[in-house]
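Per reviewer request, we include the raw input and output of the structure prediction for the construct analysed in the revised manuscript.
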Amino acid sequence: MHRRAVIALVILLVCCACASALEPSLDISQYAHTAWKIRDGFAKGPIYSVAQTPDGYLWLSTDYGLLRFDGVRAVPWQPPAGQHLPINQVWRLLAARDGTLWIGTAEGLASWKDGKLLQHPELGKKAVSALFEDREGTIWAGTANVSNQRLCAFRGGRGQCYGENLSLGIVECVYEDKAGTVWAGGEKGLWRWKPGPPKLYVMPDSADVEELIEGDSGELLIATGSGMRRLVDDKVETYQLPGFEGQIKPNNMLRDRNGSLWIGTEDRGLLHVHQGRTDVFTQTDGLSGNDVTKLFEDHEHNIWISTFTGLDRFRDFTVSTISVKQGLSNDVALSVLAARDGSVWFGTRDGLNRWKDGQITVYRKANAEAAKTAGAKSGVHLNAREVTDSGIPDNGVGSLGEDAQGRVWVATKSGLGYFENDRYVSVPDAPLGKVNCIAADAAGNVWISNRTHLVHLFGNHLVEQIPWESLGHKDFATVLLVDPVRGGLWLAFLQGALVYWKNGKIMSSYSAEAMGEGGIDSLGLDPDGTIWPAGEIGVSRVKDGHVATLSSKNGLPCDKVHGMIEDNTHSIWLYMGCGLVRMARTELDAWAADPKHIVEITVFDGTDGVGTHEIETPYSPRIAKSTDGKIWFLPFDGVSFVDPRHMPFNPLPPPVQIEQVIAGRKTYDASNGLRLPPHVRDLQIDYTALSLATPERVRFRYKMEGLDSDWQDVGTRRQAFYTNLPPRGYRFRVIACNNSGVWNDRGATLAFAIAPAFYQTNWFRAICLLTFLGMVWTAYQLRIRTLERRQTEVRALNEQLVKAQEAERMRISGELHDGVLQQITSLTLRLGKVRRQVPPDSEAVATVDSLQQQLIKIGTDVRHLSHELHPALLQEAGLPAALSSYCDEFSKVRNLTVSCETDASVQDLSPGAALCIYRIAQEALGNAAKYSEAKKLDVRLTRSDGRVSLSVSDDGVGCTPNQIAKSGGLGLINMRERVLQLDGTFEFDSEPGRGSTVRVTVPFRAAQ
């Protein structure tokens, strides 16, 4: 057995003692009944036997194999591959206490446990006709063949067969009584098998023994083909069922946990023997068939009946109903009154009924036509009596009431009266007409509402009739309520108004508009004077002139309320158009304190035995509480009651099973470690919970761990759906609760994995990653080569540009030297000649001298400019020597201290790069001399790590970015552009008062 099945078995064994069985005082018709019929497709053929394994499944045997039933779905069972039954025709089933399912077929015996199906060769190919487990755990198997029948006992997996020499005949049943005696019954009669040697008891008429069970007094009851028998003092006697007449052919018996006896017959359906009476339930009552094949009680104490045409289940209702089958005169009850003596009175269309101590008394008019009803034809119910000489004038009974003397007032079609000492006393002064309500106060006053008046009686005498018009109403009061605290009377009118009337005066009034314009069907009163009208629009609260209404907006399932009452446990009960509602008084008080409060309630509906309707009876009372605490109300198909102190409760947490997995339209066993194939797009997981009482009310929650962030509440749905799950391992969990809200928090777990496609594997991802990286590397290399090619082209272009610039500089330098400088020199010489020609004392001598000096200075500047434009030393000796020479000359010309350090390794720098650095040094030194007011300049030319660096610093005043912007900054721009042409970096640092520094770094490119 699987571990979860063992856990389920432990839970069941612990809880069975506290689980409530069927209420023994009720008839079969008062239980909840469900039928599954073969003709509706439930099964292919008759169901012969029923068993329940510890995992909670119900097993059904048929001619076509086994069905596994969870209360919702009946699924054909198939053994695992390589295992098989002796034959698919299964006759008998037995679920042993160790969890083994014993399967008796038409050609041998098999057992199923822990996923293994074993065949037992001790029986050979014989048909198995009986299976039973005794208190020692021995499995008894009886056979049914033409000859050589056997009775076999299996202990510890080994079997021993008996009876070859005893002419057992077909063995139909095996039974062990409380004394430990093992009995076997069948074709030949009844055998006492052990202890002692086997002894045969022959049945009268040589009838077959079909079933055995122990009676109430310890006698052995015997179901035979000719009727019920019992074994008393070693004698077989006829056994008469209590309160039952007629012959039956019993073939099955079951003693339920409350001691009631259930008997299945071949042709008369189902009999139920309980509390000294017998009731019958047949196909005409809804049974799937009259030919019963098996009776069974499950772990939750539901009673299962298998027939040749279907399967039936009986269970307790939360709400019980009394109908004509229990002796009620008519199913249409119009009013219900709970009297102070403990009796409950019902006014029906066919007589007045009184319920007391479990017995119904019907009061009818003598010789009433109603006595010819079907109920009368078949005789009065065993638990009911009929009185036809009570003096009641009419069988149609409407409103009821009770006065201070305990007299029950009854309104009929013919008049008004009351019951006293079991006799009806007419009140001649009472007006005729339909009576809507009767109320009485402690002083002996009786108030009656009819269509025209409010009638006041005292004792048997009419006191007054008050027309409704005098109260300001054209309609009439439908509900009356005596106010014992303040005195007076509360009246609820047909159109919804509410009036408080006292001493002939209206003390307070609430219009229909103030009450919500809905009819009022009942009135309640708190000790503090709060009035609770209930009706069309919900429950209203009237206190201190304020009206508030509790409706579906505050959590009620609907708005229509037929009646409202408080039980002895201080819970509020509302009989509504959509069900019966229970609400804690604290919830009602919480709503009274906060009208927006959503009340917590419990709703009982049809599955709980509550009949619902929107039509209201024109009579009252409509709801009542008897002295034993039961709540009574009118569903129009009898009279229903609920006992708040003894509510049926199912304490068994339902075993949860994961049945199968459907992936890609293929079904897989739901076994842990399941590995699904790749490409799973749609995944469906089927699960169930084995609560067979009301499986339609079992609720589920599930979660895929690692995928769902929280539990998914899916109500009653028994499938989980997922789409496009990525390949990896998963863990699916599902939990469930039964009809009483008891959760199995352990639930069931399924661990499975989805295999990856080849393109979803790690090695494929690694190949893809490596391929991608290779492509990226290739693209990178191509890009690098492209950039290098472009850089080469750019460098070549820059070199050409530099060469072009140098060529242009050389041309300009040559023109300056050969043209302008020669002309200036010629002019200087001519001015000297002119001076000699001018008289020494002439003023022109000074002018000529001045012009001659200016021309000499201009000539010097032109010569210097020509030298700068075309530094011949740079081409002849290289950058270090040219830069050192320029610094020396600059120092002399500018009269500044210039420190110059050069690295001789820069000698091999390409001419273009050397020229750019040289020009940058010229620009930097010129800017420092012109703008910084420097006294000392520092020039450094170095080479390191394949790069050439130039640094020009001064100790001048420095500058700010704003000062550079004002000056235009063209020198900096020129220097930066030159550096960018060489793919180098340019930095300029300057702070006011701390001088400036120009730093240039370019790649070292050797001269070609």
